[in-house]
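Example S7 (structure tokens).
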């Protein structure tokens, strides 16, 4: 009897999810293991919606953004554990490969004692515990970096400050990586609340030095000392009801009023998720997908596939279910930015 496993992608989409799916399916097929895809995350379990993942269906998926299975962060397992298990058991699979972030793993942890699981940590925010880097992060940084580089031309042309707002509620990895690689003039992250006067002095100094334009990269959760992140709106019933946003516009207006230097703002938003994966993310996902398939083949359930010290390897699933991995305020990238004269 042929072995069969399920593959599920949950939470926010991330460039590289399709690479995980394709590499898993192709590697599993080499060991005569078939796969079915769960559609739309946990909703696919509750709604009993799935598709056969054959080689023809997944071919070329690695080059696409998003996820060919669909995803969702709306459905929860809390209070519905019994229903989840009943409907999962109808699939006739021996286990499940779960690609997700902290919300997905928190949800699956409620049934993990009853289901065989191999985890593949995923988030563009790069803040999951247990792994040095998550796929999708490099692609998100590339969007920030390339956008900031392009916007510098128009900033210089019009003598403007342009504030670029990135994703990052509590972790500033995207703003830090994208801002540093584009040599932004200032980088603002949640882990290092900024001093308004110091930032103002920095901007005025650049103005005095004859700079035509400035690029400031700010994470959506960035804030001044003694202040709170700006809440754009609230979503009732969501695990993260408070949606941050507005730091770029607010900061730009404030700087314009204080310096007389015309300001504009750009919110990159979901552009950071929608680009096709970079080569770095493709290398990472093809390797992680093969490793996940090998864990299934060897029946080493209860493990996650992580990247540590530049090497993809298995680790206990519980290690990726820990609190978020935030930027150390004195991280070497922070020190590198300071060495370049970047305000952070």
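Recovered sequence:
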């Amino acid at each position: 009897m042929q072995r069969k496993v399920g593959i599920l992608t949950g939470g926010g989409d991330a460039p590289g999810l399709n690479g995980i799916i394709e590499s898993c399916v192709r590697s599993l097929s080499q060991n005569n293991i078939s796969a079915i895809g769960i559609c739309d995350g946990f909703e696919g379990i509750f709604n009993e919606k799935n598709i056969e993942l054959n080689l023809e269906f997944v071919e070329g998926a690695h080059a696409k953004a998003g996820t060919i299975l669909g995803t969702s962060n709306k459905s929860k397992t809390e209070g519905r554990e019994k229903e989840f298990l009943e409907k999962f058991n109808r699939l006739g699979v021996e286990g499940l490969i779960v690609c997700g972030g902290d919300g997905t793993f928190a949800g699956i942890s409620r049934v993990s004692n009853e289901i065989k699981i191999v985890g593949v940590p995923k988030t563009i925010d790069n803040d999951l515990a247990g792994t040095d880097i998550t796929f999708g992060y490099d692609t998100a940084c590339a969007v920030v970096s390339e956008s900031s580089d392009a916007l510098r031309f128009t900033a210089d042309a019009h003598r403007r400050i342009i504030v670029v707002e990135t994703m990052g509620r509590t972790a500033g990895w995207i703003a830090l990586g994208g801002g540093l690689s584009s040599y932004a003039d200032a980088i603002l992250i949640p882990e290092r609340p900024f001093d308004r006067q110091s930032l103002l002095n920095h901007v005025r100094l650049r103005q005095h030095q004859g700079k035509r334009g400035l690029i400031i990269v700010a994470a959506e959760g960035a804030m001044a000392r003694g202040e709170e992140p700006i809440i754009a709106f609230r979503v009732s019933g969501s695990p993260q009801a408070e949606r941050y946003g507005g730091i770029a516009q607010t900061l730009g207006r404030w700087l314009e009023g204080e310096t007389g230097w015309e300001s504009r703002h750009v919110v990159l938003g979901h552009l950071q998720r929608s680009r096709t994966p970079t080569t770095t993310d493709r290398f990472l996902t093809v390797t992680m997908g093969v490793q996940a398939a090998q864990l299934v083949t060897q029946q080493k359930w209860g493990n996650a596939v992580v990247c540590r010290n530049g090497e993809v390897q298995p680790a206990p699933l519980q290690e990726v279910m820990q609190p978020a991995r935030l930027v150390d305020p004195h991280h070497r990238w922070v020190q590198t930015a300071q060495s370049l004269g970047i305000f952070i």
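Notes on this example. The CA atoms of residues 145 and 181 lie 6 Å apart.
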